[in-house]
Amino acid sequence: MIDKGFHEIRETLSRGEPLKKFTIIDCHAHLGQWFNFHIPEYDEKSLIKSMDILGIDKMCISALLSIGPDFLYGNEWVHKVVKQYPDRFFGYIGVNPNYPELIESEIEKHWERGRMSAIKIHPETHDYPPDGMEYHRVYEILQERRGLLLSHVWGIDNVKVFGKLAKQYDSVTFILGHSGGVPKAIYEAIKVASECNNVYLDLTGSFHYEGIVELMVREVGADRVLFGTDAPFLDSRPAVGRVGYAEISEEDKAKILGLNMKKILDSLI
Question: For the Amidohydrolase-related domain, which residue ranges apply (predicted)?
């Protein structure tokens, strides 16, 4: 798609219409509820309703249970939903490193090319360092399979750790969830992505800083910035507007909103 001097994405959103003409893939979404958030609509049907309103073609999901207290049940739910709606959802396998005896069997149980062939980790909620021994087992599996990892990444120290991991496991595609979250960490994430071609920046967040999308595109390039919502943990609408109203070309918006993630998913099949 070539920017022809108009802003179709922005104008479509301004009219309150879904982005039907564009490929929209959410790299970072969830199923379920969270213990200290009121999430009234949290199942797959609720997500599809929201997706249709905005024009989101596909969501890449993990269960909030999987990054919380029960990754086994959460993975079963995701697998069921992905099988039922293969055109609308792609699944991440949640891994809890505090149960090392279950890591390999859980990955093998759910791994399915094109539907559920990626891993989601959350070092913060599972209270385990991202460079801990059991996580290295996960990275080694992904290195062998040239797989995809999405991790919650918050704070400059975590970003630096993933910078080292991305160089060590250069056949793994790393998505830095929230891109570090806070200003200093975001700048560090941009530096890491500039140095490592296998690192992607994820735009999910409950708050964002003015000009951050433009900064990422300028410093790293639109090819390695990904649209994500964190739904239903967060409302999807601001995430779409964050990209749609950014001061970047229509071509770059199209890449971020879906074409980049489509390329990643296609490589997993």
Answer: 25-264
The residue type at 86: P
66 CB-near residues (< 8 Å, 6+ apart): 74, 75, 78, 92, 93, 94, 96, 120
Alpha helices by DSSP H, listed for the chain, are 8-14, 44-54, 71-84, 103-110, 133-145, 156-168, 183-195, 212-219, 236-244, 250-254, 260-268
Nearest in space to 23 (alpha carbons), one of 56, 61, 50, 59: 56
Give the strand pairing for 58-63 and 25-31.
parallel
179 backbone φψ class: left, alpha, beta (φ>0; ψ -120 to 50): left
CATH fold label, 22-268: TIM Barrel (3.20.20)
Taking the domains of the chain in order of start, what are their residue ranges? 22-268
DSSP secondary structure, 106-150, as one string? HHHHH-BTTTB-EEEE-TTTTT--TTSHHHHHHHHHHHHHT-EEE
CA angle 258-176-159, nearest 5°? 155
The pLDDT of 125-142, averaged and rounded, is 98
Cβ atoms < 10 Å from Cβ of 209: 11
- Indicate the DSSP class of residue 92: P
Residue 36 confidence (pLDDT)? 87
Per-chain mean pLDDT for the chain: 95
pTM of the model: 0.96
* DSSP code string of 234-266: S-HHHHHHHHHTSSS-HHHHHIIIIIHHHHHHH
